[in-house]
C-alpha cells in the first residue's frame, strides 16, 4: 500500500470504530508486535487515538508504514503454524448454515474457511462453533 492508501485505510477504520486506538487500527494492517514496533519507531503511544497525535507524528507514521520494508526471513514451518490463512471466501458461504452458496449440500467449517483471528483460542472456538453449526444443519437437511 502507498501512503494515500494507508491513510485512507486508517480513516475508514476510524469511521467504522471511532473509539479504537492507533494500535487497534494498525492491527488491521499488521501483526500486533509489528504495529507496536512501528509506533515505537514513530514515538507514538499505541493506546492514543489517531486524531490525538500531532500532524508530524501522523505523517511519520504513514510514511513509516508505507516505506519500511518488511521482509519475512524465515518461519517455523507448517508443522508449528498456529493458524493458516486462505480458504473458501466468506461471501461464498451462507453464514446461517455454513452451506456453500455455489454447491447445494456442501458445508464448510474451521480453517477451510478464509477467516482467522489472534491466537488465544479464537480460531479453535471458530472451528468448534462453525463445525457444530454445519453438522447440525447438514444432519437436519438429511432427514
Walk me through what this model shows.
- This protein is mainly α and 143 residues long.
- It is elongated.
- Helix content is 44%, strand content 3%.
- It folds into two domains: 3-67, Helicase, Ruva Protein, domain 3; 83-142, no CATH class.
- Strand 1 and strand 2 form a beta hairpin.
- It contains five helices and two strands, in the order H-H-H-H-E-E-H.
- It has a two-stranded antiparallel sheet.
- The mean pLDDT is 90.
Taking all Cα atoms into account, the compactness measure Rg is 19 Å
Share of residues in helices: 40-55%
Count of discrete alpha- or pi-helical segments spanning 4 or more residues: 5
Domain module count: 2
Shape: elongated
Name the strands of the widest sheet in spatial order. Answer: 1-2
CATH architecture of the largest domain: Orthogonal Bundle
Question: How many beta-strand elements?
Answer: 2
CATH topology grouping of the largest domain: Helicase, Ruva Protein, domain 3
Segments where pLDDT lies below 50 for 5+ residues?
A: none
Mean pLDDT: 90
Tell me the span between the first and last alpha carbons: 50 Å
Main pleated sheet: 2 strands, antiparallel
Q: What's this model, at a glance?
A:
Helix content is 44%, strand content 3%.
Amino acid at each position: 500500500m502507498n501512503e494515500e492508501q494507508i491513510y485512507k485505510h486508517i480513516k475508514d477504520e476510524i469511521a467504522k470504530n471511532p473509539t479504537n486506538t492507533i494500535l487497534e487500527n494498525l492491527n488491521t494492517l499488521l501483526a500486533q508486535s509489528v504495529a507496536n514496533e512501528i509506533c515505537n519507531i514513530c514515538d507514538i503511544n499505541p493506546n492514543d487515538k489517531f486524531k490525538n497525535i500531532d500532524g508530524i507524528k501522523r505523517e511519520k507514521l504513514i510514511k513509516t508504514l508505507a516505506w519500511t520494508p518488511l521482509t519475512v526471513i524465515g518461519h517455523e514451518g507448517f508443522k508449528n503454524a498456529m493458524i493458516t490463512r486462505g480458504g473458501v471466501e466468506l461471501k461464498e458461504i451462507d453464514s446461517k448454515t455454513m452451506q456453500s452458496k455455489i454447491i447445494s449440500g456442501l458445508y464448510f467449517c474451521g480453517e477451510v474457511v478464509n477467516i482467522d483471528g489472534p491466537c488465544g483460542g479464537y480460531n479453535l472456538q471458530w472451528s468448534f462453533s462453525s463445525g457444530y453449526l454445519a453438522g447440525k444443519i447438514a444432519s437436519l437437511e438429511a432427514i
